[in-house]
Give the backbone structure.
Amino acid sequence: MSDNPFGFQKRRSLSDKIGSIAPAADAPQSVPVDRIDDAAAKYGFVSREPDVPFERRKTTGPTVTLHTRAPVKVATPFQRFCEENRYSYWEGIEELMKRAGVI
């Protein structure tokens, strides 16, 4: 009786498969980034990368969760103040407390 009664092909090892893969002789090497950016600009593509790296502000110390119901006449200007000054709500509260001389 044969070792291969169903006629399956012998599995090739990974090294056999990798050994047969070789880059083409005329394959381009890596292209410098400035050339890529120039080509993109030529065709109207605009980079979406920020000019300055993003830095996340870190809170210090432990935190406490505060929940409050505020009248619209107080909440809306406070939210606008935080948005215009790019404060999170806790930073807005801290800034107003500093201005009031509380902290």
User: Anything to note?
Assistant: The longest helix spans residues 72-84. Residues 66-103 form one domain. The CA atoms of residues 20 and 26 lie 17 Å apart.
